[in-house]
């Protein structure tokens, strides 16, 4: 069996990771025996809107250090260019392709040996009209990198998921069949979707190759005010019908390691993968001394679109509290709330992973106030309940505003939708308690 290429694609919108976060991620991938790091941050202008410009020395030096680390750690570091949003001018193709060559050459000269081309999230009608130019672009790049150490080109094209497949998509796919060293990416049956065997089989029919999965979990750029601490159970088969599996993470690099850890365990041995055992191992990997506390806290942070679309999931958002509320067992709700509050306090007192703490603390603090608000509402202390609830809305996370490259916003965080609903119902139905 050929070893699956597996790792991370830093492909999200929002504040890009820092050099230190990327350095840490490469070390982490090596530690768990993953082997791929795709550099494609949507809000690195030199990857995206300023793709024509060479990197300045300070940014180039960072990429060189990352490439050298990856080489030492046996990680394939792939740099991607995205000439699709600040769209390549095919009427000036000779000059445009030379700019791409110079960019690849600049990066190859510092030790980057693998490359990718992203044409995702572009206007599909225009892409269809320009499909022959896209084909020419791909073939020219493949020819240019044919003397590089890695001759393969990873390609993300405009029809990268099953829900968008139509006649135009089929015609586009046909153009790129059977091109040597071209590896095409695929997100599955939708943009953000659980892993589905049949969707991958559909890709194989379309492309005449196995897909290279771009898995949009735990990415949170579509819910920038949330974090995800979910159990990985978002698959319907233990047979792996893909060539590579690349995970698009959250803006929170350290917390993303929990999801990456779980997927890696699934890929190592899918037939024996036990979701909750692996989840606990992942928490322990992140911060061993507070792993039990993180486990109690985690199910208040189930809310990704993949979680919402998985019909057969076993592990549900605040399921015990939700069941107790449905049974109107307020004594049990208070017990479960106190359990979570104690876990948050223990975490704050005993954590050792500072990077993780910095990423989650505003979310955990907001959750703490929401838990206290619900508890006070059950105890009919409505004034204090409202005060705690308002405090939960004072906790914020720093983000780039949507559709902006650099406009910063401090946005109120969101935590458990279950607890939000319980609190609001309690406050609306005070006389029922």
UniProtKB/TrEMBL annotation:
InterPro entries: GH, Glycosyl_Hydrolase_84, O-GlcNAcase_cat. Its EC number is 3.2.1.169. Keywords: Glycosidase, Hydrolase. Residues 4-271 form the GH84 domain. One of its GO terms (biological process) is carbohydrate derivative metabolic process. GO terms for molecular function: [protein]-3-O-(N-acetyl-D-glucosaminyl)-L-serine/L-threonine O-N-acetyl-alpha-D-glucosaminase activity; hexosaminidase activity. The active site is at 121 (proton donor). It holds the Pfam family NAGidase. It comes from the Bacteria. The keyword Zinc does not apply. The keyword Hydrolase applies. Belongs to the glycosyl hydrolase 84 family. This is O-GlcNAcase BT_4395.
């Amino acid at each position: 069996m050929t070893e699956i290429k597996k790792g991370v694609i830093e492909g999200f919108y929002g504040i890009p990771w820092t050099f230190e976060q990327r350095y840490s991620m490469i070390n982490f991938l090596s530690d768990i025996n993953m082997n791929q790091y795709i550099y494609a941050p949507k809000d690195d202008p030199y990857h995206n809107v300023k793709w024509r410009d060479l990197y300045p020395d300070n940014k180039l030096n960072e990429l060189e250090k990352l490439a050298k680390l990856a080489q030492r750690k046996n990680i394939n570091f792939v740099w991607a260019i995205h000439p699709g949003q600040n769209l390549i001018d095919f009427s000036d193709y000779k000059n445009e392709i030379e700019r791409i060559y110079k960019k690849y050459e600049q990066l190859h000269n510092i030790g980057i040996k693998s490359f990718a081309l992203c044409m995702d999230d572009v206007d599909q009608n225009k892409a269809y009209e320009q499909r022959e130019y896209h084909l020419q672009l791909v073939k020219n790049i493949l020819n240019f990198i044919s003397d590089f150490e890695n001759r393969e080109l990873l390609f993300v094209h405009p029809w990268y998921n099953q829900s968008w497949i139509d006649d135009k998509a089929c015609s586009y796919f046909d153009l790129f069949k059977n091109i040597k060293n071209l590896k095409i990416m695929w997100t599955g049956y939708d943009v953000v979707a659980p892993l589905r065997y049949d969707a991958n089989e559909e890709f194989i029919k379309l492309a005449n190759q196995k897909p290279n999965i771009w898995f949009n979990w735990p990415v949170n750029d579509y819910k920038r005010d949330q974090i995800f601490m979910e159990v990985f159970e978002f698959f319907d088969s233990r047979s792996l019908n893909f060539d590579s599996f690349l995970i698009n993470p959250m803006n929170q690099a350290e917390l993303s390691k929990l999801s990456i850890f779980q997927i890696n365990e699934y890929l190592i041995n899918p037939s024996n993968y036990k979701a909750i055992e692996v989840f606990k191992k992942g928490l322990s990997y992140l911060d061993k001394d507070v792993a039990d506390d993180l486990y109690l806290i985690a199910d208040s942070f189930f809310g990704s679109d993949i979680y919402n679309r998985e019909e057969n999931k076993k592990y549900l958002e605040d399921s015990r509290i939700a069941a107790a509320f449905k049974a109107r067992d307020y004594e049990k709700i208070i017990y479960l709330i106190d359990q979570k509050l104690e876990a948050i306090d223990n975490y704050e007192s005993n954590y050792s992973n500072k990077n993780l703490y910095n990423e989650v603390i505003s979310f955990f603090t907001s959750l703490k106030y929401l838990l206290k608000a619900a508890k006070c509402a059950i105890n009919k202390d409505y004034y204090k309940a409202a005060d705690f609830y308002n405090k939960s809305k004072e906790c914020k996370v720093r983000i780039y505003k949507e559709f902006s490259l650099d406009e910063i916003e401090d946005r109120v965080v969101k935590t458990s939708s279950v607890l939000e609903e319980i609190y609001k119902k309690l406050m609306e139905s005070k006389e029922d308690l």
